[in-house]
Amino acid sequence: xxxxxxxxxxxxxxxxxxxxxxxxxxxxxxxxxxxxxxxxxxxxxxxxxxxxxxxxxxxxxxxxxxxxxxxxxxxxxxxxxxxxxxxxxxxxxxxxxxxxxxxxxxxxxxxxxxxxxxxxxxxxxxxxxxxxxxxxxxxxxxxxxxxxxxxxxxxxxxxxxxxxxxxxxxxxxxxxxxxxxxxxxxxxxxxxxxxxxxxxxxxxxxxxxxxxxxxxxxxxxxxxxxxxxxxxxxxxxxxxxxxxxxxxxxxxxxxxxxxxxxxxxxxxxxxxxxxxxxxxxxxxxxxxxxxxxxxxxxxxxxxxxxxxxxxxxxxxxxxxxxxxxxxxxxxxxxxxxxxxxxxxxxxxxxxxxxxxxxxxxxxxxxxxxxxxxxxxxxxxxxxxxxxxxxxxxxxxxxxxxxxxxxxxxxxxxxxxxxxxxxxxxxxxxxxxxxxxxxxxxxxxxxxxxxxxxxxxxxxxxxxxxxxxxxxxxxxxxxxxxxxxxxxxxxxxxxxxxxxxxxxxxxxxxxxxxxxxxxxxxxxxxxxxxxxxxxxxxxxxxxxxxxxxxxxxxxxxxxxxxxxxxxxxxxxxxxxxxxxxxxxxxxxxxxxxxxxxxxxxxxxxxxxxxxxxxxxxxxxxxxxxxxxxxxxxxxxxxxxxxxxxxxxxxxxxxxxxxxxxxxxxxxxxxxxxxxxxxxxxxxxxxxxxxxxxxxxxxxxxxxxxxxxxxxxxxxxxxxxxxxxxxxxxxxxxxxxxxxxxxxxxxxxxxxxxxxxxxxxxxxxxxxxxxxxxxxxxxxxxxxxxxxxxxxxxxxxxxxxxxxxxxxxxxxxxxxxxxxxxxxxxxxxxxxxxxxxxxx
Length: 838
Ligand SMILES: *[C@@H]1O[C@H](CO)[C@@H](O)[C@H](O)[C@H]1NC(C)=O
Ligand SMILES: *[C@@H]1O[C@H](CO)[C@@H](O)[C@H](O)[C@H]1NC(C)=O
Ligand SMILES: *[C@@H]1O[C@H](CO)[C@@H](O)[C@H](O)[C@H]1NC(C)=O
Ligand SMILES: *[C@@H]1O[C@H](CO)[C@@H](O)[C@H](O)[C@H]1NC(C)=O
Ligand SMILES: *[C@@H]1O[C@H](CO)[C@@H](O)[C@H](O)[C@H]1NC(C)=O
Ligand SMILES: *[C@@H]1O[C@H](CO)[C@@H](O)[C@H](O)[C@H]1NC(C)=O
Ligand SMILES: *[C@@H]1O[C@H](CO)[C@@H](O)[C@H](O)[C@H]1NC(C)=O
Ligand SMILES: *[C@@H]1O[C@H](CO)[C@@H](O)[C@H](O)[C@H]1NC(C)=O
Ligand SMILES: *[C@@H]1O[C@H](CO)[C@@H](O)[C@H](O)[C@H]1NC(C)=O
Ligand SMILES: *[C@@H]1O[C@H](CO)[C@@H](O)[C@H](O)[C@H]1NC(C)=O
Ligand SMILES: *[C@@H]1O[C@H](CO)[C@@H](O)[C@H](O)[C@H]1NC(C)=O
Ligand SMILES: *[C@@H]1O[C@H](CO)[C@@H](O)[C@H](O)[C@H]1NC(C)=O
Fold this sequence. Notes:
InterPro entries: A-glucoronidase_C_sf, GH, Glyco_hydro_67_aGlcAse, Glyco_hydro_67_aGlcAse_N, Glyco_hydro_67_C, Glyco_hydro_67_cat, Hex-like_dom2. The protein has 838 residues and is an alpha/beta fold.
């Protein structure tokens, strides 16, 4: 019978659609389940648990997991049992009450757990209820990965604060979210159906996240409405069984904009009383609210500076309000003036954090945590660690990481982020000449603070994949794992995630590992390298290339690129002095070009394009080469993924393949745009003569056009030859034709075109009177990145038809049917001989 059920479950599993909603909690049957089932206990005891308690959840989860993995349904009871063959899960208190003391007990810290599994007996003891649930998830993760050997160990968190931030707006949209609308809000209010919120809390609990800030840091005062406070209570109720506490972002001006006071001065007793009252109202409904997150005096947000009060005055006002309830105030260090003047060589946004916060060290209440982005600017593809981590010795700090890939491909490019985070977390800032790794500062250990930890901007949406991309989920998984234990290796974390998400096939494991581990270096290579920042469009969507957008505005993400030189001079000697914000050993390293690592050269130094790197290459040649190398690696991801056909279920296989093909095409847009831009600016040729030289291309503007006309694209570098074609009207078709002058043969025919939001143009490609393909400009439905209404580096994309027979003299014909504002724009057609990508 048991065997029959296993077989049945296995069969079900194989046909079941894998839409991504189960993420890494699939509990798929493991190979050799027959063997392992023999050593699995026959009963689960969730000690003294009552419904809605995390220990109860642990019991249910163990039951669910074991049913999935072994096809066996175990009973769960709340009473201690003397049966030998049990899984007992409980808190330290209930466990010792039932079974007596055990040696490891005294080493358990808050949220920590003890897991001891030997044969039929499994003991999971949490320091608290949450810890017990974490221990249960840990045991299941081991079983699901086929680890059945005996274990006995204690695991404690690196830091007490392990939160996510969700930038959800009350109208249901999500700032920098790429997976559909909000799971928390709709039409101004908390959603009625909270099922998916509970599912999300479960996912977070499994990676030991203990808090969520559910609304955008650019906060809407209406989150405080009576109806929304009721809604917060409903959300907190469904997250509580998972040990995940709810918190909210606040708008600093709420007393005025919502409360009708005539001030929001943090030192005005009326304002103080107003916040205390609001806070009391919320805690009456959500007694275990985690606390508040505040973005003040940043990017147009209100804050204490309006009243000549300090940021600490502002933070402490909230701290007083939540203090009676044990609440925490996360206060963002992302404060800067976005109207600085580039003509001032010494102006530097990267200095803002220290300018605003250094003098406030020690002035924040003990329940305030200053939440610091990992680098001094804004989640760029590479930044040095923020010097603020080493400057605050008497203030709690947390590191803010971004899981949502705002500047890093918006979930349409594979970028496994753990290696980036690790570089920052392991970076030793040498405060006071002593070891001061970022991970040990935010854990609260280095400066011996009461609080510290992690805030990860996730922005999950209603899409079944959670983040819009199956592969992007490794980032959420890794975030939780690193927040618990930052000493873990990124590749080991990744491989746990792969086994849990895709199963045990060795080729699947090796392939996804290889792709993921190359993905950040590849993205850095074809976007912005040498520390110049991502080079995306900082004034628009943060997705595609637009290097010029960095400069000549007040945002301070400058590159200071001119005809001869590039980079920010952040030296003390002649620049903005930013290098001097670091403790002396680090400051000296960054002050000197010789000791600055190449990958941060242009972050700290302004140099000629002909400056030699440690590799021996010039800066400009490195740009050219790295953009070619990175985009070439992105092409290999497609082939690597294709090699997994049949080893991954079709639904996920197709979904991922679509994105990898997109990335491969868009990486070429990146490569050519950045290389063209600096080639044009510097007029320094590429040693390998690739840049500006594309022998396999037929430029659309060189074709015979009927109903189409040439169009100068802006930014210019995002079109091959700076020009594309668009239909002459927004209703009638355009036709572009040309005689093929390439030698007869078999080619991959690639069409580069622009897919704008606001229309779904249709295209038809013919060669020699044969239809090669037809497609629709509907990526806005299929990809989920921030769309563009222009022909630019965000909308530029490629479609490829493989193995097309072409004869010299054949006519190639593209017909474009415009739709809405989308004038069926085309950039060029490439005829690529086998093995060539251009
Ligand atoms: C069970 O385990 C034994 C020894 O570990 C092994 O020889 C055998 O092949 C396993 N059987 C199954 C069905 O996996
Ligand atoms: C599980 O519980 C059911 C219903 O209470 C009971 O009939 C069954 O015998 C139990 N199974 C085991 C193995 O204890
Ligand atoms: C757990 O439940 C048992 C039986 O109901 C009770 O005797 C014991 O005191 C409880 N333990 C705790 C710590 O509440
Ligand atoms: C609530 O949402 C879940 C999925 O998120 C869905 O399965 C369920 O049917 C919804 N319930 C209602 C009452 O709409
Ligand atoms: C406290 O807030 C509630 C709800 O917004 C409001 O009804 C009440 O008047 C406030 N009390 C004070 C003293 O401001
Ligand atoms: C803040 O201080 C500045 C300079 O001291 C002064 O001009 C300004 O009026 C003050 N603003 C307020 C709101 O007090
Ligand atoms: C920047 O400063 C320069 C020199 O002082 C001045 O000419 C220019 O108008 C300023 N630009 C802006 C945008 O304020
Ligand atoms: C999720 O997004 C994909 C596009 O990436 C889309 O095809 C799919 O329909 C979406 N699914 C849900 C449930 O929103
Ligand atoms: C020093 O700074 C000036 C601007 O103040 C800049 O023009 C010059 O290039 C810098 N010199 C060096 C050696 O970097
Ligand atoms: C990135 O570029 C560097 C420098 O050119 C090169 O050594 C490295 O192999 C490239 N890596 C990837 C993944 O593109
Ligand atoms: C293609 O070649 C034919 C004959 O050589 C010529 O008449 C025709 O105009 C050419 N068409 C295009 C689009 O260049
Ligand atoms: C295709 O059709 C066009 C127009 O009907 C003709 O001029 C052309 O020669 C045909 N053949 C090829 C191989 O392009």
